[in-house]
Design brief:
The structure is a single chain. This protein is an alpha+beta fold. It has helices spanning 60-72, 92-97, 134-140, 144-157, 161-164, and strands at 19-28, 31-39, 47-48, 50-53, 78-88, 104-112, 126-132. A hairpin with a 7-residue loop joins strand 2 and strand 3 (47-48). The chain contains five helices and seven strands, in the order E-E-E-E-H-E-H-E-E-H-H-H. The chain has a single domain (19-159), classed as Nucleoside Triphosphate Pyrophosphohydrolase.
Length: 166
């Protein structure tokens, strides 16, 4: 496996939030597996990676590491910025405080662990977690942006491999 370290460290105080999505991957037997968390029903009940928002003045890569630690208790041996982002309309609570804000851009990161470890999740945010192969993880994701984000992570890990799959 060849990993390239990418950096997306910039500190700004934008007019709105700077959300991040972190997919966590770890070696398992003969493959790699991705950690997915299931949001509680009150938060949508969807499976996804770790998500959160950079704090004012915090670099995006620092936010990714902090959110991963806060939501799972895990620390990566390597963090990579994925060359993929997507936009969505701001939630009403954010749009009301910044009426000029038309959309929010979420940046994607890939966190590599040295081994599969059971995460410690906050039951007020997530009610389940599991490790999945790439193909299994794709089946659990529902939002097109999350699916594409995972595809881009897999391309970082296995360049060219997705092009050879049927």
């Amino acid at each position: 496996m060849l990993f390239r370290q990418l950096q997306l460290s910039f500190r700004v105080d934008p007019p709105g939030p700077l959300p991040i999505l972190v997919y966590t991957v770890a070696p398992a037997d003969t493959t790699l597996e991705y950690l997915l968390l299931r949001r509680t029903q009150s938060r949508g009940g969807l499976w996804q990676g770790v998500s959160g928002v950079a704090e004012p003045g915090e670099a995006l890569d620092e936010a990714a590491i902090r959110e991963l630690a806060e939501q799972t208790g895990l620390a990566p041996i390597r963090l990579m910025a994925v060359n993929y982002h997507y936009t969505f309309p701001p939630p009403k609570r954010v749009a009301g405080s910044t009426p000029h804000l038309q959309h929010i851009t979420e940046r994607v990161f890939l966190a590599l662990l040295s081994a599969k470890v059971d995460p410690m999740i906050d039951p007020t945010e997530h009610d389940a977690w599991d490790w999945f192969t790439y193909e299994e993880a794709l089946m659990w994701l529902r939002r097109p942006e999350n699916i594409e984000a995972l595809r881009q992570c897999e391309k970082l890990i296995n360049p060219g491999e997705l092009d050879r799959r049927p």
